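Worked example 3 (structure in, sequence out).
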């Protein structure tokens, strides 16, 4: 069945539910014959937390070391007066593609475009650059605007550089086309995207901030562009 459908299926999410308590061990995606299998364990404790939180979805927690075998270097900017902390850094194309393969559209729920298919002039241009001029991808691409509820990282050094270990409730509020095109190139066309580097700005609202409104505004303004 996998061999027959692998042209159309790139990832399978396996949900395991139990009415008891279980230790959610570090079980991460495994690729079998080109199809990524992503196990997700839901015990009674997690189901209860989900119910009382009032949230419509489980919080996405990305552990870069455990899931992708690499941490994420970034520069922590000075705390702004707007009620947020900001990190600026770079992420590899392979990690970005693998993140989308596992979490799919849940990563872009706050993106006003919600458009990831490799169609249209913008996406076609990104695909062409990945295919023909990968060395120029960084120069041509605008990068990603990300938001999260919290970040686990090392203490910044004297230059402000820290190592991000994990990110909770990550959302790609601008950069869906970039993410989708890189995912498409790796998973559908077998292109090598590990050498690509994509710059990102990660905004983490501080406690007491109107988080939904701030995220909505970031999504709105970062997706607004003037015609040239």
């Amino acid at each position: 069945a996998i061999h027959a459908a692998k042209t159309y299926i790139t990832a399978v999410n396996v949900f395991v539910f139990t009415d008891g308590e279980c230790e959610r061990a570090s079980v991460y995606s495994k690729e079998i014959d080109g199809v990524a299998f992503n196990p997700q364990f839901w015990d009674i404790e997690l189901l209860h937390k989900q119910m009382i939180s009032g949230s419509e979805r489980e919080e996405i927690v990305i552990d870069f070391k455990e899931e992708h075998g690499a941490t994420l270097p970034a520069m922590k900017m000075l705390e702004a007066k707007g009620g947020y902390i900001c990190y600026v850094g770079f992420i590899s194309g392979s990690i970005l593609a693998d993140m989308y393969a596992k979490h799919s559209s849940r990563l872009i729920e706050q993106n006003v475009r919600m458009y990831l298919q490799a169609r249209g002039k913008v996406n076609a241009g990104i695909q062409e650059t990945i295919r023909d001029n990968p060395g120029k991808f960084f120069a041509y691409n605008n990068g990603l605007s990300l938001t999260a509820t919290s970040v686990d990282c090392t203490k910044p050094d004297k230059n402000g550089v820290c190592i991000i270990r994990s990110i909770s409730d990550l959302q790609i509020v601008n950069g869906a086309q970039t993410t989708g095109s890189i995912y498409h190139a790796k998973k559908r066309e077998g292109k090598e995207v590990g050498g690509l580097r994509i710059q990102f700005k990660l905004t983490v609202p501080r406690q007491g901030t109107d988080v939904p409104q701030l995220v909505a505004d970031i999504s709105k303004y970062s997706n607004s562009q003037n015609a040239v």
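Notes: The helical segments are 2-5, 44-53, 64-68, 93-103, 120-132, 137-140, 176-188, 211-222. Residues 51 and 227 are 44 Å apart (CA to CA).
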